[in-house]
Amino acid sequence: MNHINNRYLLWLRFNGSLFNGFASSGGNAYGVMDFLNPAMENVLAKKNIDQMKLWPCSRTDTGVHVLRAPIIMNIPSKYGRIDEYKDELLKEINYVFDNYYPNSMECFDFHYVSPGFCARKHARYRRYVYRLRVAKTQEWYEHFLHSPSIHCFSERFYSYTTKAGFNVEKANEACRILSGINNIASFMKDPLSQRRKYIKKLHVQKELNLVRFTQGEPINGIEDPHFDYYNFEVVSRSFVREQIRRMIRIIVKCGYEDRYFDQLKIMLRYPDPQTFIELGHRAMSGKGLYLVDVVYDKDDFKNPMPYMAQELDTYLNKVVSVITGDGRNFVGLMKGYDQTVNIILENSHERVYRGEQLGVEQVELGLYVVRGDNVAVIGELDEDLDRQIIFEHLKVKPLEPFWVPN
C-alpha cells in the first residue's frame, strides 16, 4: 500500500509549569503544541522539508509534567525517511528547544511507525503519579504558608502541599475501593451537559489496573525535616478529562476524615459529574501531577491492530458522517483538521436520535468543530442515498455513549 505520509513517534519530556497544557491553546495560552509546531518547522526547514503535521498522544492540563510521552509526526513521503539521519536530527531538535525555551522540553528519541498506528488508540496503558507533600505538624504547615522554607521553593511547581494529619493507610483503603472496573462518571469534566435531556445516565466504565499511595521523596533528593512525601500512582489504559485530579481530591480527604468514604461510595453509586460538584468538591491542582509513561506493544509500531487505514486528508472537501464516543452523530463538509485531530465541519448538522416514538431531529450547526479525542468513526457519506431517507419518520433508539473523551 502506498501512503502519502511517513509517520514517526517523537518521545518527549517537558516541564508542565512552563506550558498551559499539552494541546495547542492558541493566542496567549502557550500550550506544548504551540511551541512544538514552530520549533519543528525550524528544524525541518534546514532539511528543505516544509510540510508536516503533529498530534499529541494525550491531553494534559496546565501545570502537569510529562516524563515520557510521544507525539505523532506526519511528513509527506516525497521527502523520504528522516530517521536515516536520526542522531543529527535529535541534536538539532534539542538545540532549538534549548535556545528558544531553555529547560522546558527534551526530545530523547524518535522512530518510524506504520501509517496505521495511532498514538491514542494503540496505547496499552498510561501511568501517572501525583506527588503529595504533607506537613509533619500543623504549626509548621501554617508557618511555611507565610514564610516558605528553601524546600518550599524547590517543590513550588512540582508537588501539592497539604496540612498535617494525613493517614496514608486510610488513603490506600480508598484506593482499593476505586481499583478495578467502575463507572467513573463522577470524576469526569462533563462534556455532555448540553445534551442531558437526551441522556438519562452516563456509562463511563474504566478499569484502574493500579491505584495506590507509596512513600515519596523530595524532588531534589535532599531531606526535608518538616514534610513527608507520598506518591499517588495510578495506571490505566485511558482516563477521562480531569479524572485523576478529581479522584486524588476525594482520596486525600479520605486520608484525613472517615466521613469522606461515604461520599466516595455515593460518587460510584450515582455516577454523574454533578455528583462530585454537588458534594462540594473541585479538582486538585495540576502542578503535582506527572504523566510518567505511555506504554505500547512494540509490534503495533509495525503491524498495528486495528489498522487505522484512512488518512484524514482523503476526506477533505467531502461530506462526512462522524460518530463520537459519547453517542453523537454529526454530518457536514469536512474543511480541515488540526494537530489534535479536531474535525472542522462546514454546513453541518447533528442528527439527534430521540427514541422510537419521536424520530430523528436534525439540528443545524453551521461551522462546527468535533473534538479529536472523541471521534470514534468517520466516513464519507453517500449523499444520493442520504437524500432518500426521511429522517423524521425513522423510529430508532438513541445512540448510547460507549466511551467519553480522554
TrEMBL record:
<keyword id="KW-0539">Nucleus</keyword>
<dbReference type="InterPro" id="IPR001163">
    <property type="entry name" value="Sm_dom_euk/arc"/>
</dbReference>
<dbReference type="GO" id="GO:0046540">
    <property type="term" value="C:U4/U6 x U5 tri-snRNP complex"/>
</dbReference>
<dbReference type="InterPro" id="IPR020103">
    <property type="entry name" value="PsdUridine_synth_cat_dom_sf"/>
</dbReference>
<keyword id="KW-0508">mRNA splicing</keyword>
<keyword id="KW-0413">Isomerase</keyword>
<keyword id="KW-0507">mRNA processing</keyword>
<dbReference type="InterPro" id="IPR044642">
    <property type="entry name" value="PTHR15588"/>
</dbReference>
<dbReference type="GO" id="GO:0000398">
    <property type="term" value="P:mRNA splicing, via spliceosome"/>
</dbReference>
<keyword id="KW-0694">RNA-binding</keyword>
<protein>
    <recommendedName>
        <fullName>Sm domain-containing protein</fullName>
    </recommendedName>
</protein>
<dbReference type="GO" id="GO:0005737">
    <property type="term" value="C:cytoplasm"/>
</dbReference>
<keyword id="KW-0747">Spliceosome</keyword>
<dbReference type="InterPro" id="IPR020097">
    <property type="entry name" value="PsdUridine_synth_TruA_a/b_dom"/>
</dbReference>
<dbReference type="Pfam" id="PF01416">
    <property type="entry name" value="PseudoU_synth_1"/>
</dbReference>
<dbReference type="GO" id="GO:0005688">
    <property type="term" value="C:U6 snRNP"/>
</dbReference>
<keyword id="KW-0687">Ribonucleoprotein</keyword>
<comment type="similarity">
    <text>Belongs to the snRNP Sm proteins family.</text>
</comment>
<dbReference type="InterPro" id="IPR020094">
    <property type="entry name" value="TruA/RsuA/RluB/E/F_N"/>
</dbReference>
<dbReference type="GO" id="GO:0001522">
    <property type="term" value="P:pseudouridine synthesis"/>
</dbReference>
<dbReference type="InterPro" id="IPR034103">
    <property type="entry name" value="Lsm8"/>
</dbReference>
<dbReference type="InterPro" id="IPR010920">
    <property type="entry name" value="LSM_dom_sf"/>
</dbReference>
<dbReference type="GO" id="GO:0003729">
    <property type="term" value="F:mRNA binding"/>
</dbReference>
<dbReference type="Pfam" id="PF01423">
    <property type="entry name" value="LSM"/>
</dbReference>
<dbReference type="InterPro" id="IPR020095">
    <property type="entry name" value="PsdUridine_synth_TruA_C"/>
</dbReference>
<dbReference type="GO" id="GO:0071011">
    <property type="term" value="C:precatalytic spliceosome"/>
</dbReference>
<feature type="domain" description="Sm">
    <location>
        <begin position="307"/>
        <end position="384"/>
    </location>
</feature>
<dbReference type="InterPro" id="IPR047575">
    <property type="entry name" value="Sm"/>
</dbReference>
<dbReference type="GO" id="GO:0009982">
    <property type="term" value="F:pseudouridine synthase activity"/>
</dbReference>
